[in-house]
Amino acid sequence: VSKENHTQTSTVMVGNAPIGPSSVTLIAGPCAVETPAQTLEAAQMAVQAGATILRGGAFKPRTSPYAFQGLGAAGLEILADVGREVGLPIVTEVVDARDVDIVAEHADMLQIGTRNMQNFALLQAAGAAGKPVLLKRGLTATYDEWLMAAEYIAQRGNLDIVLCERGIRTYEPSVRNTLDVTAVPVMHDLSHLPIIIDPSHAAGRRDLVLPLARAGLGAGADGLIVDVHPHPEQALCDGPQALVGEAMDELAQLMATLPALLGRT
Ligand code: PEP
């Protein structure tokens, strides 16, 4: 995945949606798929804001075993149905190598979450699944460790990998994680893989999502992945970070203006 022999960042196609240097890709949707109605409403919000890829978790990697773990296979069906209904390709997380086949059957892109960045069996299985992979940075991973995780996928013959900076653990307790904006230009320098940022999981707070999105895109990120929810106060997962209402208008405004300003159409 090194930049050697590459003059520019690669473009990864997810269905018909590009992620690469010529665009600013918005991936949006609910943190977790909860019901068909909630997923559809969130997907419609995503479309309104300019998203070209729908996100949604069916297998959720939760810190507490008592928290909502996702709907599993039923959630995949809901997400795939909703994706078809709104006309967007879908990305969803796979947390276990044994689930790679079923997730790849439904999804246009597989997501490897922060907690599994060094789950090497999972990386290899995802690399062999024939679908693009969104590889989130581990909570405490160095750039080299992150790139080596990408190599596990690439080694299986799959170079359709998109990196995602989603915040790292630091000593600052007032936000959930610290978005490492530096990762964007450094990874662009080291690797030809596109890189997007996840301001929702970085901040854990709705009010910080747009400022962090601007920072990441300003630093050269190839896109954003954000959580949206029609009723965040009822969300079964990460409601406080989900965009809704005016914040969605702000996101739509950002997507309508920023790509042209950045010279990306
Ligand atoms: C997610 O995107 O749903 C998620 C759990 O993200 P992360 O792995 O970055 O915590």
Task: Describe this structure as you would to a colleague.
It is a single chain. By secondary structure, this protein is of the alpha/beta class. It has a single domain, classed as Alpha-Beta Barrel (TIM Barrel), CATH 3.20.20.70. It contains nine helices and ten strands. The protein has helices spanning 36-49, 73-86, 100-106, 120-127, 143-154, 183-190, 199-203, 206-218, 246-261, and strands at 12-14, 17-19, 25-29, 53-55, 90-93, 109-112, 133-136, 161-165, 195-197, 223-227. Strands 9-8-7-6-5-4-3-10 form an eight-stranded parallel beta sheet. A two-stranded antiparallel sheet has the order 1-2. The longest helix has 16 residues, at 246-261. The chain is globular and about 45 Å long. The structure holds phosphoenolpyruvate. Residues 31, 57, 61, 93, 113-114, 136, 166, 198, 201 line the site of phosphoenolpyruvate.
What are its keywords?
binds phosphoenolpyruvate; 9 helices; globular; EC 2.5.1.54; eight-stranded parallel beta sheet; TIM Barrel; two-stranded antiparallel sheet; 265 residues; 15% strand; 3-deoxy-7-phosphoheptulonate synthase; aldehyde-lyase activity; 3-deoxy-7-phosphoheptulonate synthase activity; alpha/beta
Oligomeric organization of the protein chains: single chain
CATH class: Alpha Beta
The topology string of helices and strands comes to EEEHEHEHEHEHEHEHHEH
Q: Can you list the ligands bound to this structure?
A: phosphoenolpyruvate
Distance between the termini: 25 Å
Question: Count the helices. How many?
Answer: 9
* C-alpha-based Rg, rounded: 17 Å
Q: What is the β-strand count?
A: 10
Tally the structural domains. 1
In percent terms, what proportion of residues is strand? 5-15%
Strand order of the largest sheet: 9-8-7-6-5-4-3-10
> Shape from CA axes?
globular
Secondary-structure-derived class? alpha/beta
Poorly predicted regions are none
> In this structure, how is the largest beta sheet organized?
8 strands, parallel
CATH fold descriptor: TIM Barrel
Protein name: 3-deoxy-7-phosphoheptulonate synthase
Domain DAHP synthetase I/KDSA: 23-256
GO molecular function: 3-deoxy-7-phosphoheptulonate synthase activity; aldehyde-lyase activity
EC number: 2.5.1.54
